[in-house]
Amino acid sequence: MKYSPDARPERWLGSLALAIISLISLGNVVTRYVTGGSLAFTEEFSVFLLVVLSFAGASVALRRNGHIRIGMVERALPPGPRKALIFFQGLCGACVLGLIVWFGGKLTWEEYQWGSLSPGLGLPQWWYLLWLPLLAVAMLVRLVQQTLDRLSGRLANEP
Questions:
Q1: Separation in Å, CA 151 to CA 3, 71, 80, 146, 147
Q2: DSSP letter string over 38-68?
Q3: Is the separation of the CB atoms in 52 and 129 below 8 Å?
Q4: For 39, left (φ over 0), alpha (ψ -120 to 50), or beta?
Q5: Span 117-145, pLDDT tens digits
Q6: pTM of this structure
Q7: Membrane-crossing residues (predicted)?
Q8: d(CA 63, CA 131)
Q9: What angle do CA 46, 11, 103 make, to 5 degrees?
Q10: What are the backbone dihedrals phi and psi of residue 117, each rounded to the nearest 5 degrees, phi first?
């Protein structure tokens, strides 16, 4: 049986975000055609949902070992150094995602404390920003899973 890792919550979240973006955009096009004006909230929500979709999709790609990378060096190395390189790749990715979690969480907290409102609709800005550290944590979890799977040989080194 072939090992097939999955990231179901992120798939659902990404699918939901894409469906809502499509509906909002369609509604905006119809409204603009019928009335000559557009719906005010569409751009703000669409940008927010696009960020959610991007992070959710990146998390799914991490879990499925679908991110692109240059595998020439990995293929050229013997098993021991190859595992060290895989570990190093995972560590570098974890550092970047850890920084996103830390600074995204810090920004979200500051926006909450300041009571900043979004420019378009006047909603609390932290509602939008909260998804950045949360989805970066999801990506971090998927990165750890992918790295452990690659190190144990459950996942092929090539996507």
A1: 14, 15, 10, 9, 6
A2: --TTHHHHHHHHHHHHHHHHHHHHHHTT-S-
A3: no
A4: beta
A5: 988 888 999 999 999 999 999 999 999 99
A6: 0.85
A7: 12-33, 45-63, 84-105, 125-144
A8: 19
A9: 65
A10: -110, 150
The residue ranges of every structural domain in the chain are: 8-152
Q: Do 39 and 30 form a contact (C-beta atoms < 8 A)?
A: no
The secondary structure element, H or E, covering residue 19 is: helix 8-35
Instruction: For residue range 17-74, list pLDDT tens digits in order.
Output: 999 999 999 998 898 888 888 777 788 889 999 999 999 999 999 988 887 777 788 8
CA distance 61 to 66: 5
C-beta separation of 155 from 90 below 8 A: no
Query: Cβ distance 31 to 53 under 8 Å?
Result: no
Residues in the chain: 159
Tokens 């790295």 appear where? 147
| Burial class, 17, CB count within 10 angstroms (exposed 0-12 / middle 13-18 / buried 19+) | buried
Residue 119's Cβ-count burial label (10 Å; 0-12, 13-18, 19+) is exposed
Residue pointed to by tokens 């790749």: 89
